[in-house]
Amino acid sequence: MTPLIEADHLTRYYGSHCAVNDVSFTLAKGEVLGFLGANGAGKTTTMQMLCGNLAPSAGQIKINGFDLLDQPKAAKLNLGYLPDTPPLYKDLTVQEFLHYCAQLHGIDKHAITDAITRAKERCGLTDVADRLIANLSKGFQQRVGIAQAILHNPEVIVLDEPTVGLDPIQIREIRTLIRELGQDHGVILSTHILTEVQESCTHVQIIDQGQLILHETTAGLNRQMDTGTLQVATRLAPDINSLLTIPGISSIDSMAENRIKIHHSLTANPAEQIAEHIIAAGWGLQELTPVKRSMEDIFISLTKEHRDL
Amino acid sequence: MSMILAIASREFRSLFLSPMAWTILAILQFILAFLFLTQVEAFAELQPKLNSIEGAPGLTDIIVPPLFGNAGIILLLVTPLLTMRLVSEERRNKTLALLLSAPVSNIDIILGKYLGILGLMLLIIALITLMPLSLLSGGELDSGKLFANILGLLLLVFAFTATGLFMSCIAGHPTVAAMGTFGMLLLLWILDWSAGMNDRRSELFEYLSMLRHFQNIQSGLISSVDVGYFLLFTTTFIALSIRSLDNDRLQK
């Protein structure tokens, strides 16, 4: 099976500034790829290149097997794109706008009405179909933007910060929609909201200063986040050296007099032995909590590591 | 092809969504009707004298060329206003991404936009043509001369629109595009004035002047040089517009 997107050594310069540096990745059907990065990391530039709005300085992009440069029409036929600013003609009604988009994407005349109805239903736009886009709230405009991207049922859907400006309920709806779309399409979404990636993506990719620093499945990342740290509080100060003899413990940090952090390997979870040991020694166990690294920590530590290099 | 038509029809209809097209049509019609009536009156006054002269100019000669000549000048003022928003506003509103990521080529985009504006232009020309045609109820027209004038104005409008489209492609702001188009068209229009000075004639300027080619066609002399000039002019600016849109992807 050909991957839906094949990006090969993408590089993009703005003058002498390198916005995207040698980025390669693939996207297969059924994947939702979250594209993470700080502001100005090169997310939008990469997306613009994927959608043919910007030519890469070097590298190659294939969409559903079609080279974006050699066969732009065939490639773009399989593409739905929501840019960071939704491209809406504000003097049209939602219905008119979607009709125009359907024509642009070459949907068959007889199928247009069905396609529009389906897109409106999926994005919750049925009630506002006859209103001018200019008069819609930011959230609804964002939804029209999404509707436009999924209208022609493309294989690849690229969404640049799709949940910006939406209220929490709408955000949840859109995330559900993205998960749904991910089942039989390939979806890329860029964001700097980390929980969004955890909730709706199957794969994560972190870009920093134009370079790809992580490509991982969300499950893999979750595993990575479970670093195996226990926070222990006791009534009396524990004897660290005797605790270190328990198998599986790699190191112990003393935080306060009665509070320690125990790092251990993932395979052997020594929580039970630690509890038994502390109780047997009579130090008075008060607290034993596993510490989970949040995605934010990983994001920050990875970008920091990358910049220190 | 269907994509070109889709873009063209959106462009055409969006003109009528704002008061823009309506205002222009109304004002143009009002001014030209006024000029037309003055011309008809002039003819009515001159008629007894003309009757006594052998080979005197007829009804068509007196009424049609001035009407179409004036229409040309007014369209020179109006075209920049119609074309200025074509690309530059899409770029400012970031709606260009919709077209660029859709399966349409830059050629389709430019041609669609061009044809959209041309649609309104054709409507304007049709309305202008109705005025002399109304004379058919009481007189006779030289259909050949009328046709030459319509053709002249058509070719002129092709060139105006292409220039405006190109300016809209390269300008960052619609107003700048309008100013650029107006300046350029006016320059090409008056280039002939300096060429008219007897001792310092420049063949290049004479060839470049739009007015001269337009007047040649208006007089009923349809030569391939004049028609070729306008077609070449139009093609060049459309090609430049496509190039400029291509550049969008490469720039910065």
Q: Largest sheet of chain A, described in full? A: 6 strands, mixed
Main sheet of chain A: which strands, in order across? 6-7-8-3-9-10
| Percent of residues in β-strands of chain B | under 5%
The average pLDDT value of chain B, as a whole number, equals 89
- Uncertain stretches of chain B: none
Structural class of chain A: alpha/beta
Number of self-contained structural domains of chain A: 2
Euclidean distance between termini CA atoms of chain A: 37 Å
As a whole number of angstroms, the C-alpha radius of gyration of chain A is: 25 Å
The quaternary structure here is heterodimer
Helix content range of chain B? over 70%
Based on DSSP secondary structure assignment, what is the total number of beta strands of chain A? 14
User: Which architecture of the largest domain in chain A would the CATH scheme give at its second level?
Assistant: 3-Layer(aba) Sandwich
Write the layout of secondary structure elements.
The complex is a heterodimer of chains A (309) and B (252).
Chain A: E1 5-14, E2 17-27, E3 32-36, H1 43-50, E4 58-63, E5 66-67, H2 72-76, E6 79-82, H3 94-104, H4 112-122, H5 138-150, E7 156-160, H6 168-184, E8 186-191, H7 194-200, E9 203-208, E10 211-217, H8 218-225, E11 229-234, H9 240-243, E12 249-256, E13 259-264, H10 271-281, E14 285-291, H11 295-308
Helix pairs in contact in A: 3-4, 4-5
Chain B: H1 2-17, H2 19-52, H3 59-83, H4 88-92, H5 96-101, H6 106-134, H7 143-170, H8 174-195, H9 203-208, H10 210-218, H11 224-250
Helix pairs in contact in B: 1-6, 2-3, 2-6, 3-7, 3-8, 6-7, 6-11, 7-8, 7-10, 7-11, 10-11
Comma- or semicolon-separated keywords:
heterodimer; A: 309 residues; alpha/beta; Rossmann fold; Alpha-Beta Plaits; 2 domains; 6-stranded mixed β-sheet; 4-stranded antiparallel β-sheet; 14 strands; 35% helix; B: 252 residues; mainly alpha; 82% helix; globular
Put the structure in a nutshell.
With 309 residues, chain A is an alpha/beta fold. Helices cover 35% and strands 29% of the residues of chain A.
